[in-house]
Amino acid sequence: MPAVHKVTVFCEDFDEHPSEDFIWVKAWLKKWGESVLVADYSTGGWEHLWDVSGPREAIEEIPERLLCGSDWAGFS
Questions:
Q1: What single string gives the DSSP state of each residue in 45-66?
Q2: Residues 6+ apart with CB under 8 A from 18
Q3: Helix (H, G, I), strand (E, B) or coil at 19
Q4: Residue 55 pLDDT more than 90?
Q5: Among 37, 49, 53, 76, which is disulfide-ready with 6 (CB 3.0 to 4.6 Å)?
Q6: What's the rounded Cα separation, in Å, for the pair 7 and 15?
């Protein structure tokens, strides 16, 4: 069984139109489909956080600027 990696993804979305980062995350989730599990999603309106787990290949595609520390990811 392949190793599962956990990260927290964060992006901001200030406008009424989705930000490029938000669009990227949504496309990434669609691309990886059921290979990536969204354990939690939260939004404060302009900020979006996803706790996700998936194969190393999927997680390595996430730009570093979108990663943030969290208990879920194992670092704060």
A1: SSEEEEEEEEEHHHHHTS-GGG
A2: 26
A3: coil
A4: yes
A5: 53
A6: 25
Q: Cα(64)–Cα(68) distance, rounded to whole angstroms?
A: 8
Taking alpha carbons only, the member of 58, 44, 43, 42 closest to residue 7 is 58
CA atoms of 44 and 61, how far apart (whole Å): 25
* pLDDT at 2 (0 to 100): 63
**Nearest residue to 3 via CA among 50, 60, 47, 48:** 60
Among residues 38, 39, 45, the alpha carbon closest in space to that of 15 is found at: 45
Q: Which region among 9-23, 28-42, 48-62 has the lowest average model confidence (pLDDT)?
A: 9-23
At residue 12, the 3 state secondary structure works out as strand
